[in-house]
Every structure is written in structure tokens, then in C-alpha cells.
Amino acid sequence: MKISVLGCGRWGTFHAWYANKIGHEVTLWGRNKSCRMAELMKTRKNEYLTLPEDIILTSDLKAALSGTDIIIISISAQQLRTFAHTIHDLGLSITAPFILCMKGLEIGSGKRLTTIMTEELGREVQTAVWVGPGHVQDFMQGMPNCMIMASSNIPLTHHLVDIFSSSLIRFYYGKDLLGIEIGAAAKNVIGIAAGMLDGAGLSSLKGALMARGTHELSVLIKAMGGNKMTVYGLSHLGDYEATLFSLHSNNRRFGEDFIQGKPFIKLAEGVYTTEALMELAGQLHVELPITHTIYEIVKNKKNPQEQLKQLFLRSTKVE
Amino acid sequence: MKISVLGCGRWGTFHAWYANKIGHEVTLWGRNKSCRMAELMKTRKNEYLTLPEDIILTSDLKAALSGTDIIIISISAQQLRTFAHTIHDLGLSITAPFILCMKGLEIGSGKRLTTIMTEELGREVQTAVWVGPGHVQDFMQGMPNCMIMASSNIPLTHHLVDIFSSSLIRFYYGKDLLGIEIGAAAKNVIGIAAGMLDGAGLSSLKGALMARGTHELSVLIKAMGGNKMTVYGLSHLGDYEATLFSLHSNNRRFGEDFIQGKPFIKLAEGVYTTEALMELAGQLHVELPITHTIYEIVKNKKNPQEQLKQLFLRSTKVE
């Protein structure tokens, strides 16, 4: 199979490496002026892995999109709309399915990433998502994991699972695309909350965070028309180990650094997701206490210790 | 309020310390010949805490049970039937409610601990359970947590929550006693599985373990007539941080040591719970893949690496 991977960050390079490893012909695209692509072209290495010589590296987007069977996109979620628009403007007739490998919701609109694809590329575009637990660092050490592939087209989902399954990654088929996208994005918010609890010396409350975090997202997903149980599967709860407990988790680390007043290079994706979820909560009149607390701390600079304790320890509740 | 705590192990002494701290008159009972009680009477200390002088220490069970308002039991789950029988044989007329603070199911019968209380002490006995996350070590350092109080008598549950709430422990009211007891006991089985994954270098699969572990117990609880959602609350999922990730967790440690062939002093409670759950699964014709795998490894000496990988990585599943 010919696989094109668009995006040459940590996950993009991993997906290229992985698709090559399991026997596919891989093209990896990165922006012309990107330092990362320049470095890969020079050394074929980044901090995480080395790309074999038979992976084609290119900065020609048209070339990467032409004559390929599957297109994997792995860029920042907030850049997807612009990027999809750019693809549209190339005027190619693309029949290959897209797989989105990032987790996020559009800030300002709260829209899902597959919705953005349809809006920018037309209703005939086929888009799946590939989410769930796993860190590049662990995969590169041979640690296997279970992930989830989902789309609104069941035969397509099965086709993609067949193509990408290996002893390193075992796929579950996802049926509730809406729930999976929301849950996958929202786990980064819970990850920030976990990091804040760690930073505040309240790690023991991560148990309550797991129980209440899944609950509040299940309410949101149900209000959006999805299945309230989806959040308890691999896309959200199944990603808690990697997000709430791993030292590799960017969002957890962001929360910990934020609360301890340490400098951070860039906002974690979960910060944008927090805003997008608040947008959705407003639209749907749903309460999201944990998300709201993170919003109050990060955006409105409320006192973190006070906010976190209030969240878990103030009132007695029926379960 | 007069509170008697029966059992002077790690949790029993903590409950005595805690009830005293929040202003109650406390009596702590331990067996006459128990080394722990002898040590406490001599030094008022154990490895975790120091008991204030105003806590009465006794080995006289009749005295501990007389003229008290609430009786907390914190002994090994497998000893409860014999212990309750001993209490019955004292021939006292006890009207004070009991609170059980341990997590387990009776091996051989799969029976819940509140059922054992009723069978041994009569239908008029009032029994609540106090479960959920928290480690004595963390509480003693002032780390707060959320826990859960449940009984089949709602006013009693509220009464007990009022008595035991503090800024250190915030209670949720539990409504589904059956689901709470099964979930609280079963989290120790998932804890052993987590330890085995840690010991096998497969910690990344703890995400999938959380998603699948909650699922299999929700199926069991539903088959038993409980609420399938209870398992996603504090009694089970909310206890995963303390059980699957904490270094203080005995069950996690047991799983890790077992798989690495290290000696262990005694079986973790989760081993008994595994047997009890297999008993229930057989009675109710429910499949419990994770519990079954732990059973195969611990009781039938099957190859752990093979069994664990087979559990998570063999077949592709719909979620």
C-alpha cells in the first residue's frame, strides 16, 4: 500500500516509521521551511527515532497527495482547517481516505476535526480517526498498545484496521465517531487537571478525577447525540494511563508546570480543547465542572489550590 | 459520639486515629494475643501513626461492643464470617450500626460482606460499607481524598456521612450497595493485573486495562441485579489511582512481585477476590476475561507474559 503521512513532528514521523515497518511504501511530507523537515532530510533522525532510507521525504504537498492509497494527517489540531483549505485549493481529485491522528477540537467553534474536513474538502471526503493510548517513546522501545480506529463508514474502518494492525498496535473498531472524537480531545483536559493535582501535592485525588472526568464527558457526549458509554472505552478512559500518569504526557506536564509557576514553551493542546469544550457546554447547556475549573485557572488566573479543592472536596454528592 | 473500631491493623488504627481526630470518643479493639495490639498498648505506635492517649485500647470484645454508637470493622475480609459469628455468640443486643472498611468477597461462596453480616448476626443488623480511594500513608501526610459510604438504608448512610466527613475525607453517598461492594472488592483484582503489567514491562497496557477492567465488572454487576454504572464511580474506577498506580498498593505490588518471581509474605486480598469472582462468573454465566487471566496465572501457573499479551493483544474487538 502507498501511504502518505502529512506532518513531520513526533507523531507524524512515528506514523511514517510504523507504516514502513509493517511493509508499506511511505512518503512523509513536512513544510518546506520547517526546521524539522530540513533536519530529517539531512540526518533522517529526530529526538525519538531514525527513519529508514526507503521512506520518501518531501515538502511537495501535491506530490505527497497524488497516487497514494491512504493519507495520514498528523499536525496541530488548531491548524487543520487552514491545512485542509490548502489541500482543497490544490484542486486535486483525491479519492484516498484520510486518517487524522491528532486529538483536539476547534477553538471558537467547538467543532470536531472530521467536521472540519467535510466543511473544507466536501461531503465526499472520507475521514477516519486513529486515537487511543500510546507514547512514541514507549512504542520505540517495543511496548505494545491497543488503539482505536473509527469512522462513520464501517467497511472503511475495517479496511484501515486490517492495513495497520501489527503485534505492536492492536486496534479496536470504534463505532461512535462523535463520542470517540470528543473523548479523545477531552482527555487532554483531564490530563492538565491531573498535572495540576500532581503539582499541588494532591495526586491522591487523581482517582476521583478519573471517576468524575469520565462522568462529565459522558454527559456532554450524550447531549451531543453520541453514546454516553464511549468515554469509558479506549479513546478516553483507555488513554488515562498515558495522559494522567505518564511522565511523557505533555498535557499532564503542562498542568504541573503551570501550577508550580514554571515556564512552558507552548500551550498544551488541552488548553485549546478546554476553551472549545466550554463553547460546547454553553451551546448545549451542560455543566462540565472539571473543564470549567481548568478554564478558570488557566484563562481567568483563579487560585489553583482553592479551585481544585473546591472541585473535589466542597460538597457531598450522591453517586 | 462513641465509636468502636474492631481490628488494629493499618486501616483499623487509621480509622481509630481519624475518628478521634474529628472529635469522637474512640475505643480500639485488637485480639488479645495479637502482636500488633501488644505493641500498641506498649508504645501507642505502629509503622504509620501514633495513637493519642485518649483512645481506649482493649482486647475485650464485649466491652468494645457495649454502649457504643457506631462499630467499625476493619479486619481481613476472609475472617469476617468467623468474627461475626463470634460477635453473635457473645449474646449482646447490639443496636449500633456496623461499618465495614475492608474490600473483599467470601472465597468459596462469592458472597458480599454485608450478606455475611446478615447471615451471622440476623436480618435486623444494620451494616454500611466505607470504601473508595486513599492510602493511610497519604492521609497521614494530610493529603485529602474522596471516599464513599453506602448502605441499603439511605437515612443511615446520610447519618454516617454527617458523622465522618471532614476536610481530610469528603464522602459521596452510595446508592447501589451491591455494585459498590463488588466494585470495591474487584478493584484489587485489577490492581494485581496492573502490577503484573508493570512487572512484565507492559505498563502502557494499563490504559487498556482500565477500560476493559471497568467494562467486565459492569457486566457482572448488571447480571447480579446492580447498576452497571456504579463501577465507574469512586468505589471502583475512583480507586484505580490508589490501586493501579500507587507504590503503596499491596495488590499492585503482589502482581509485580509474583510475575518477577520474587517472594511475597502473604497473598494479597485480590487473590481471594479473584477466586470469589470466578465463582460468581460461573454462577451467573458471565465472562470475566481479566479476572480469568489472573486466575490462570496465579492459581494454574500459566505463563504470565503469554497470558497478558493474549488478553490485550490477540483479537481485534468492537468497542
UniProtKB/TrEMBL annotation, chains A, B:
Gene Ontology CC terms, in alphabetical order: cytosol
Glycerol-3-phosphate dehydrogenase NAD-dependent N-terminal domain sequence ranges: 2-153
Keywords from the named record: Lipid biosynthesis, Lipid metabolism, NAD, NADP, Oxidoreductase, Phospholipid biosynthesis, Phospholipid metabolism
This enzyme's EC code(s): 1.1.1.94
Key word Lipid biosynthesis present: yes
Catalytic residue list: K187
Catalytic activity annotation: sn-glycerol 3-phosphate + NADP(+) = dihydroxyacetone phosphate + NADPH + H(+)
Residues bound to NAD(+): G7, C8, G9, R10, W11, G12, K266
Domain Glycerol-3-phosphate dehydrogenase NAD-dependent C-terminal: 176-308
Annotated InterPro entries: 6-PGluconate_DH-like_C_sf, 6PGD_dom2, G3P_DH_NAD-dep, G3P_DH_NAD-dep_C, G3P_DH_NAD-dep_N, NAD(P)-bd_dom_sf
This protein's name: Glycerol-3-phosphate dehydrogenase
Species per Swiss-Prot/TrEMBL record: Megasphaera cerevisiae DSM 20462
